[in-house]
Write a structure and sequence with these properties.
The chain has 221 residues and is of the alpha/beta class. It is 30% helix and 24% strand. It starts with a strand and ends in a 6-residue tail after the last strand.
Length: 221
């Protein structure tokens, strides 16, 4: 079977993409960009990522980026990480993107130079139906970052569940694909055990609303 790595955001869409490609591809691990020991966009600590990877039974590779990160530095460091994957026998990178054409085009261009194929298993699905499908399939996640210009800031720290979906304003994508919110997956298909995290007190940073996470008990990985 082809050997792939998943571009790992730590959120529900990446987890669903991983679950689906595991049926016909060998997944070699997870690849995440981090800044100051946390996922750049959602600010989830690397310790929580490692706990996810351990529960999924997959190695985690991280690409360290400065903040702020000039585009040339981003492309240099991610390019080096992709080249290393190719050298290790990886031929495909899996993404959880849903419908943003410009994002997909950028990912395709970045992989072309590295000799890797992109795969978008969730592409063009109706996000309202996909969200319910993920929940019905056992995906459990917490909202860790909200753009208050696009979604109610008070949903940060809440479970991404049926009740939250029912309460979202009509203009908010149920999967947050337009950047309205970001999630951290705590359980779902492929997880050997739930990742037990404790949300802290919400705070604002650079115009976004966040909730800090920590593992309950000793960290994993």
């Amino acid at each position: 079977m082809p050997r792939s790595f998943v571009s790992w955001s730590c959120g529900k869409d990446a987890a669903r993409a991983l679950h689906e490609v595991r049926t016909d591809q060998e997944v070699g691990g997870l690849l995440t960009t981090v800044t100051d020991g946390a996922v750049a966009m959602s600010r989830v600590p690397v310790a929580c990522l490692r706990a996810q990877a351990a529960s999924l039974g997959l190695p985690l590779r991280t690409v360290d980026l400065p903040w702020p990160c000039p585009n040339e530095v981003y492309e240099e460091r991610t390019g080096a990480a992709l080249a290393a994957l190719r050298a290790d026998g990886v031929d495909t990178v899996v993404f959880g993107d849903l419908f943003l054409d410009d994002v997909r085009a950028y990912r395709e261009r970045s992989l072309d130079g590295a000799g890797l194929l992109p795969r978008f298993p969730l592409w063009s699905r109706r996000t309202d139906l996909l969200a319910r499908q993920m929940l019905d399939g056992g995906t459990r996640a917490v909202v860790v970052c909200v753009d208050p210009a696009q979604a109610p800031p008070e949903i940060v720290g809440r479970a991404w569940d049926e009740r939250l979906l029912d309460e979202l304003p009509s203009g908010v994508d149920p999967c947050g694909e337009n950047g309205e919110f970001h999630t951290f997956v705590t359980d779902g298909p492929g997880f050997e055990r739930p990742v037990d995290v404790v949300p802290g007190d919400p705070y604002d940073h650079d115009g976004f609303h966040y909730v800090p996470l920590r593992l309950r008990g000793p960290s994993t990985g």
